[in-house]
Amino acid sequence: MTSIDIERWTHNDKKTISRSFLYGLTLLVGLIWGSVLLVSSVNTLVSLKDELVITTAVNHINDDYSWQKSSSKHQLTLETWRKGTFRPTFQLIQWIQSPESVHNDQGTYLVKETSDSDKNAYVVKSILDDKYTHTLFSGSSFKYHGVEYKVHDLQASPDLTRAVIRTDWVHGWRHSSSALFWILDVESQQIVPLFNTNDKISFASWSPTSDHIAFVYDNNIFVKDLASGTISQLTFDGSADVFNGKPDWVYEEEVYASDRVLWWSPEGDKFTFLKFNDASVPDFPIPYYVQDGHDEYPEMVSLKYPKPGYSNPIVELVVAQLPKSSGSAFKMYNVDFSSSEIKERLITEVLWVSNTQVLAKITNRASDVQEVYLIPSEQDQQVSIVRSLKASSGWFEVNANAMFVPKNASLGRYADGYIDLVEKDGFNHLAYFLPPESSNPIFLTGGQWEVLSNYVDLQNNIVYFTATISASVERHFYSIDLLHIFHEQGLPKINPITNGTKWYGGSFSSGSRFLLLNDLGPDVPLQRLVDLHENRVVKTLETNEHIAKLMTEYDLPKANVSVIDLIPDGNKGKSIKVNTVEILPPNFDPSKRYPVLFYVYGGPGSQLVTQTFAIDFSHVIAAHLNSVVVTVDGRGTGFNNLNLDLGSQFKFCVRDKLGHFEPLDQIAAAKEWASRTYVDETRIAIWGWSYGGFLTLKTLEKDKDRVFSYGVSVAPVTQWKLYDSIYTERYMRTPQENPEGYVTASISDPESFKDVTRFLIMHGSGDDNVHFQNSLRLLDEFNLHSVENFDFMVFPDSDHSISYHNGNKVVYDRIVDWLRRAFANDFTRSNSPSLN
After folding, report:
1. What confidence score (pLDDT) does residue 70 get?
2. Domains along the sequence of the chain with CATH
3. pTM for this structure?
């Protein structure tokens, strides 16, 4: 397939988009990397509310904000950002997964349309037939037995005859929730409860044949037969310790990033699910102090939370078969993994690779040994290991990118198979396993770059994928011929679908003929529907022209993504290449000297420096405090292919020693910026959230030359033995196996903080992810060593996002005002720990 000229698309659509080279993480990225510990973009944390008003004069920042008065344009403020003024608009669509779409993909999708009266309509449309519209439901609420219920969302059945509606939605942990569920009959518009009107359930899942719905209530699995209306309960042991079909806390957070672990077979007559037994997992109590109804005594919530070296949940894979006839019963059996050499297993991926076989991946606790099983749907057949692997570099990442490729002799596929992401020379690449029993991958791609996701057009034997071929800070779509392996030698030819210095995301229709293409930057984002068979744009959904206009009306910071060479301490004088972004304030004058703020995250496999559009908190700091903001993706982060000699060791070098290389690279980068003529080397600060909060503190701890004068750490891990087992052991093994590593990876030298000019720590007391315990243990160490040159702010009952009771407004207010004071040298004038 030839490359699609994106600029030609824009011209033909007669849309003019002004260009800007702006850095940031977008609000809509369809790609997920690595673990989901710790939030890697502050954009996702913000509850956009009120403005912070700063009235104190600051004479030390280039003439008391006089740079802002020299322009007639609007200024970027915290209020502007909070309101989402520059937040791109994207349409969220639900591709219809009808069985026939694999062979006859009409590009049908469900979209929610909102009228001026705030009345929602859930409408099915077709890309092939632009005139086709089918309204499933119109309205923002409905009444049942005289009670009004507000619609939270709607999920259509594959055959579009019914839909599941959620109301009374309540957020759980990061991905989980509970709600009342209802079944809508589209033709009659009749709405009835899925279960009971007084009992909230966790989720509901349509069978591919639209005739059954599986759901979880009270940690047990139920199945509703829509033809008869009967509900069958399949499990009866659900409890506070046992979870059926839904993940416990650690699997929800660190493995599946989802509220469900239940998968239907292609023909919808079976499904498989995970069962977790957390009885041996220690309880972690979280007190909530300011909840309604708990005025005198705090509400105590007990969370099953395994920490490194402690018991993990015992996880089992269960296969269930629906009754084959009326009057017969469900059949279920637990998969026997007794042949495994892994004694404490994690089940990290499950995939049906035919209607009678399930593929399951399991790893050990350290995530460096992986076994792949092929499991029959019938209990009397043998479970077999098809692959047993040892990580060649650091660890196996958790991903769910395997795709079933069914046989179809008329299309040249003579056996079932599947496509998976497999490590090749330290980088993830596409591999074809044919048949599923095969242990030998047929690699479809290779090179010092990463494949991130893949999709298959089964009708045309085309594999689409996203990758970092052109640059690690870009994302593009590509295609290859799946059957190349049968008629030519070597790897298939890679055909680019998108081009330019860009970052693209998107999703494919169920037959992979159509692509919802999100052009995410660095220019103002666009959203289009593309017909990949005809190589054309069918429809432009969003142009965000309002943002392009706004950008001409504001004085905005300028961002530049680049590659620099660093020579970190301990690297024997050898340089490494890293991706960076530098954001310069409006009206930047290279003859003046500016303060610098480093914004960091740095977790294993993460990435902050990208060619995406954003005007985010870093831009606010640059504009509001007339400062330079820098982000550096150092060693340990993902997708860096700039150092040919290091290869995958750029990421995997942090194995067993978190917090060693990452701060050295930030310090080396700070020294580089301190040497620049426009930088005031006495006013360099660093800040981060979550892993970024840990990296901020670790950098201040290791910075013996005091390149950094200030730091702001939000919700930090301070001792890795206090974080969850699955994430931590993937990079550090257990404390029993790596005792010295856990000591050096923690914030373990409180005396070193006495030389920092000033630093700030903030944490939510209700943080279920990085427990408040982390900050309290560090404060205790500071007290024992008389470290007093810091400020501390606690947010009652706030979780990891610090959003409870106006917390999100206050946390950013504090950061801005604290940095303003730091850059004004206020803290250097005080001889007392108290700054009042």
Report:
1. 54
2. 1-16+401-543 (2.140.10.30), 24-88+556-829 (3.40.50.1820), 92-201 (no CATH)
3. 0.90
